[in-house]
Amino acid sequence: MQQISHRTTRGCQRLRVEACSRSSTSLAADGVINAATRWPATFGFVVPLLLQLLALLESGEAGPLVTRSPPPSPTLPAVLTLQGKLLYRTTQPVGTWVLAVSKSDATYRLPWQPEDAATGQPIPPATWISLACNTDGLNVPRCASISDVKVVRTAAETPPPTADQTLRLLVMTVNLSSSAACEGQPGLGVQEVMDLFLQPDGHVSFFDNCSYGKMVIDMNASKVVSSLVPCSQAILACDHDAISLGARKQLPDGVRPSAFSHLLYILPIGIVQTCGWLGLADVPGTQTWFAPDILGIYRKATVMQELLHNFGLYHGWRNGKEYEDYSTAMGYGDSCPSAPELRRLGWATPLAQLNSACFPLATFVNFTLPATYLGPTGVMVKIQPDWLGSSYTKNVYLAYRLKTAGDSGLLQTFNRKLNIHELNKDIDNDPSAEGDPRVSLLGVVSPGANTTLAAYKMYIIAGAMVNSNTSIQIKVCRFRSSINECTEGPMRFTPPVPPEPLVRQSPSSPPPSPPPALPSPPPPPPRHLSWLPPPLIPNRPSPPPRPPLFLQRRPPPFPTPFAPQSSRQFQPPFPSPRTPQLPRLPQIPQLPNAPTSPTQPSENAPPLDPNQPTSPPPLLRSPVPRLVFQPSPPPRKSSPSPPSSPPRAPPILFSSPPSLPPLQNTDIQTVIFAVPSSAGSPKKLNPKLAPPKPVMIHSNSSPLPSPPSPPPPAHNPPSPPPSRPPLPRLVLRPSPPPAGRTPPPKKQWNNN
């Protein structure tokens, strides 16, 4: 017979079963269970268990049932074979690489950018790959290491986004409900988020203006919903995958994420500080995350930046620093994308595309460039400096920005200026290429200024703003070794633009830009500085045609990207003194003769080599009459006077030449003042001519010999000035004659 004994203690019940392995035949022999012979042999294990449960129920203080856990199995790293699309996520301070698993909502974080096992080259985002993921036994979608990476489908096989895009957004405001893990956290309201998109200057309007109607947010097909997600430690730690997965699982009935083109997640209010970022996106992809912050979902530039990440755009750069381009929403700016980004998106096309095949050497090419807001066609100049040979690695873009329309938030630093950007030429020349081209701001050039891009052997002059300031005239030249090689070419040269994909003309787009070519002016030949003011004296006789003047830069070139060195502007006129005291002034240096070629630039341009001295070059001007101050001579002793000469005509005062370029150097400057007119001496000036304004003359050439100095004053006390002190005479000297001729006789003083 089976022996069963019970021992009951306080708080504990112990059951001991003896001889539980006896056969059922022994039980039948004892007569306890007569029917045991009819049961299967395995039932003998059931009876002790039933008796054990019965004993526990009968005891009043039965303690918990303690079960023995199986021995732990050795922890082995789980290796998974995954296949999906490689994405780059714009986390800070460094980005994150993730793999969106095919036919699944799972997204695995990768420890680094995968490299092709066959070639060893880094794999760009948007590439379909397979890999072995070592999770280290962790119960999270994260790979501690990866191996055996293979490319299934390259990014080039993925068709690039077209220009015409209608976005259907599903915006989810995430709210956290309290759970055993953490307290609940509220999120933004649905109506508040809708107002951010639909207000007059909101997100929808910003996209429409910047894209010229080529990327439209369809709010009728979009939806803003609230999603209540149970709070978890992963969400409080700002795990963006946990946030997105939880939000999609808690959507209202009838809302399917597959019905929308892009998914936007707005974080709960309480975890903004934990995350440390304002916006996050998959590059490329369809998901974006935003902080409920004034610089997050409330800022239209942040929304544009994250959504354009989904289309393959990266951040703007400056001086090797990410985000530092303040002229574009892809950096820290509140304005439309820059010119290279507009073209990358297919929103705008260039006015011209220059390379060695259509950009003549040492010849200025002239453009009238409209502002970018007047797009989508002909609002930038793309330059491919392939003349650099193996050093050709980047393209250059020129664009004129104006603070209006989509660029109403443009900083004044870039407003009404020529903006210059550079980027990787391999990615820029291939619309289907993936990766960060590092669109970098080089600088801006103000109207009337110039700059030299020594790395690209280019010289750029920004002229006047025209067409009600909506366009700017520019001149571009490429040289071999020095800017002195650049000469004036045709008035307008429009190289052929390569065919661009046809884009839809949106009805909301601004009117087309004005034609770039302006009618050629009548003779004399066109000047480089056609934007300078007209002559000051309209009635003077017209001089012979002058050669074009060459605007020079001021060294050093390009000291800062935001303020490339520009030419010195004209100084405002100095007021004429009532009683001018004439100190000893240097003579006006002799101006060089007119060059034989009307397009010959200056000869001493600053060198490109920084090791060479950068002496400012002199200006080459056509011969002009030289006005020289000569002090009144001392009183002469009585002597036989020579035969009297016929009376001289009063001197003619010349104003500044109409094409005088901005000054470059202040090493040698001569200020020439006009003799003031007074009621007591009306005959000293021509009454028909307005008193000329002072002119700044600059030259590095050797000065003319000075006239004999007056005798030094005696050491006696100065005598009282006469009632009417003698005024200086302005003597007109003609240009120096050619070599070999006898110089003209010296001018005689007129004491009358």
From TrEMBL:
<feature type="region of interest" description="Disordered">
    <location>
        <begin position="677"/>
        <end position="752"/>
    </location>
</feature>
<dbReference type="InterPro" id="IPR008752">
    <property type="entry name" value="Peptidase_M11"/>
</dbReference>
<feature type="region of interest" description="Disordered">
    <location>
        <begin position="490"/>
        <end position="665"/>
    </location>
</feature>
<dbReference type="InterPro" id="IPR051425">
    <property type="entry name" value="Formin_Homology"/>
</dbReference>
<protein>
    <submittedName>
        <fullName>Uncharacterized protein</fullName>
    </submittedName>
</protein>
<dbReference type="Pfam" id="PF05548">
    <property type="entry name" value="Peptidase_M11"/>
</dbReference>
<feature type="compositionally biased region" description="Pro residues">
    <location>
        <begin position="508"/>
        <end position="562"/>
    </location>
</feature>
<feature type="compositionally biased region" description="Low complexity">
    <location>
        <begin position="581"/>
        <end position="591"/>
    </location>
</feature>
<feature type="compositionally biased region" description="Polar residues">
    <location>
        <begin position="593"/>
        <end position="603"/>
    </location>
</feature>
<feature type="compositionally biased region" description="Pro residues">
    <location>
        <begin position="607"/>
        <end position="620"/>
    </location>
</feature>
<feature type="compositionally biased region" description="Pro residues">
    <location>
        <begin position="631"/>
        <end position="650"/>
    </location>
</feature>
<feature type="compositionally biased region" description="Pro residues">
    <location>
        <begin position="704"/>
        <end position="746"/>
    </location>
</feature>
